[in-house]
Each structure stands twice: as C-alpha cells, then as structure tokens.
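pls ignore typos typing on phone
glycyl-adenosine-5'-phosphate + seq
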Amino acid sequence: MEKIVSLAKRRGFVFPGSEIYGGLANSYEYGPAGVELKKNIQDEWWRVFVRERSDMVGLDSSIILHPKVWEASGHVAGLVDAMVECKQCHTRTRADHLIENHYEAKGEKISVEGKSEAELDAIIQENKIKCPSCGKFDWTPVRKFNLLFETNVGIVPEAQSKVYLRGETAQGIFVSFKNILDSTRVRLPFGVGQIGKSFRNEITKGNFIFRTLEFEQAEIEYFFDPETTDWKGLYEKWKGDMWDFVTGNLGINAEVLRWREHGDEERSFYSKRTEDMEYKFPFGFKELWGLAYRTDYDLNQHMKFSGVDLSYTDPTSGKKFVPHVIEPAVGVNRLMAMVLLDAYTEDGDRVYLKFKPRLAPYKVAIFPLLANKPALVEKARAIHDALQKRFVVAWDDRGNIGKRYYAQDEIGTPFCVTVDFDTLGEGEAENKDTVTVRNRDTGTQERIAIDKLAEFLHGKIYN
Ligand code: GAP
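k done
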C-alpha cells in the first residue's frame, strides 16, 4: 500500500488533499494521470451499463436536493454511525471499526453490525481497547453521529434553510423517476444509471482513496414488476454483469474477488437481499460494489413524503403499480484504488503498472531519440500531434531512452514510440519512415510504419 501511495503522488495520480495547508484527512486530489485513469473507468462503466444497453438510460441529478428527500430516504434518521471520542486526544472514531480493528490485530474476527450503542460500549470496555491515536484508554460513551454534510441555502442568516449534500446518488434517481417516465419511452424492466459525487462525513482512517469524504458513485436503480420478473433471476443476472465488468473490462483476476452476503443484522431493513462484491485490498477483503434488492421502499417513501403518485402504468395491460428496484452501487474511486493496486507489478528492478491498455491514462508516449537533433524532434512532434487527435499521448525528450521507459512504466503507458535516425532514412534503408514501438508488458520492440501506426495502436488498445 505504501508503495502505491508513494508512486501515486510521485507520478501524478493522487495527491493528499489540501497538502500545502497541512492536509485534510480523508480528502485527495486527482493529478494529471489520476484524472485520466478515473475518467477512463467512469467512461467504461457508462459505456457498458448505459450506452450499450437498450434497457438503460442515464441521469445527472443535483448534489443538493430538497431536504425532505433525505427524510423520506431515512438518511436523516438512519445514516448515522455509533462513535466514540478519546477524552485525552479528542480523536473521534467509529465504534464498530475500533472493535473490528482490535480483533483483526489479534488475528480474530468479529461482526458488530446491528449492535446497540450499549453493546458496543460493553465490548470496548471489556476489551480495554485503546485509542489508536494516543494509546490511552479513556473513551466517551458511544454516541450517534450524522454522516450527511449539512449546509445552508440562503444568503442572510435569518432566511437560511438547512440542506444536505447528497449521501448517495441513488435518491436523485427516485426523485426524477416520474420525469424519466414522462419524458422517455422506457418500459419496465429498465434501469437508470448515474455517476456523480456523494459526500459522507467519514471520520475514521480512510485507507487512501478507499474511504473519503467525497467520492464518485456509479449507481443503477433497475426497476421491474415483481409479478412478471423473477427478482432472484434478475439479481443473479446483475451479479454476473458486475463480475464480468470487474474481471473483463477492468481486467482484475477473479482470485482476488469474492461475494459476501449481508446477514440479517447487517442488511438494511428495507432490503430483501444485499451482497457485496469484495476485493482483496492490502488491508483485507473489503466491499467494492454492493448489490441490494431495495423492493419498492424508496418510491413508496417518496410518494408518502411528496404526495406525488410515482406508480407505473403498464401500457399494454393498464396495470398500475409501484415498481421494485435492484440496485448495483459502486464507488469509482474505490474501483480506481483496486485498478491501481492490481496493476502494480515488480519485475526485478522494473516497476510498471499493468493497466488494461484501454484504462491507461496515457496510451502512447512519443520520444525523439535525441532532444538536440532538430530533425528528430520535428518528426517526433509531427507524429505526436497526429496521434493526439485519437489518443491521450505523452511526450518525453529528457534523459536517455531507458529513463523515459522507466517513467512511462510507472504511469502504465502501454506503448512507447521512438523516432530515431532510421526513421529519418539515415540508417537501414528499409526502416525509413518507421518507428520503434516498445511494449510495456513484454519489453519487446518492433518497427512499425508511421502511416500504419495509429491503426496498429488502436487495434492493440481497443481490441
Ligand atoms: N445507494 C447505496 C449506497 O450508497 P453504499 O454501500 O453505502 O450503498 C455504495 O455505497 C458504494 O459506494 C460502496 O460499495 C463503495 O464502493 C462506495 N463508497 C461508499 N462510501 C464511500 C466512501 N466514503 N469513499 C469512497 N467510496 C465509498
């Protein structure tokens, strides 16, 4: 993990948040390489789950929604965590994490999901669990704490009203359900996909970008008629699609993935079944992507709180009912953490990020063999500018070729193209107007004609 965090900073993937002011816990900035990688993961998700499916449409709803949305969803009352505060150093921490980490350190496992504050208190006291920050054992009693960020709308204090930054993108989909029905030709079963920022007042250690204050969620609400669609079959189908995306589109090895079903204590009260796809992070198997059968709970709640009819009328039978929903919900930043960790490869002295070429921040890097030979630089620039219209391209003319390969390997660039004297026709005659293309994973090099280069790269990257 430390190697990845250090590489991520050194090579412009992820920087600590607000670093020049001493940092802000659980917040990060995505640098030039990171923003490309994150965007590629998002685009892949959007392509696979929205654009290439005829049963899906997209949405981009507001971060600030009417405060009643969160009352209806149960977040104002429900999205709360039991916390403790160290009386010595004032560190606040989630009681469940404190207990689970204590047991994990002993090589034991415990599940405290669903336990009351008094029960959590008793476990902390019995085990004399110390503060992870200062090492003292002096806790306040366990208390609830709202994870939703609050802010105010209105410019004068007397006329301000409290609103929340959304804690999940899902609610925006339920709120727009009627407008989607009225403005499109969707018919059940269909899904709505959305990618956008969500905010949670996470106050425990986040493990890099695994858990942060703000994060991008990619969520789907898949609506169906429970009388005509077998939910168990649909649920399994979604499990398959999620698995295929992670193993196929993101290229993750199935051996470091698993499904874990929530027990009765852990599962939200409105969910009939919830399973998490978990990835083996350096800190253990942890939730990557949740799949929940939320029934008709959310639409019913919004009908109740808004007074607006959110039922669906079947255009052929005329049957009117409130659809049920299955929800695959993932964090893009968490997907990115997995992709970065999984791509990290050490081969002797060589370190490289073995991204699927489609996900790599830069697809190809262009090098003039020597920076002080204008003919080489000019030719390399022309190739760079032509390729830039189709790919994200890097340029490097510093140091020697070995150093340039090293730098590109560390950002996972799948192909490096060198323009040399042969390219200019000053070496082997048959190599005129060809370049050397070096493959990141094999280290092998081949000569490709400049006029075939774009097609060659396209075939390798998007095959
Ligand atoms: N609408 C359902 C929902 O939000 P969740 O399990 O709380 O369910 C879904 O969140 C996904 O969002 C998680 O599986 C995880 O990938 C991501 N996620 C949740 N909290 C996060 C955080 N603080 N930082 C980064 N990603 C987070």
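The pocket of glycyl-adenosine-5'-phosphate is lined by residues 168, 170, 200, 202, 211-212, 215, 217, 219, 287-290, 327, 329-331, 333-334 (CB under 6 Å). The chain is about 35% helix and 25% strand. more later
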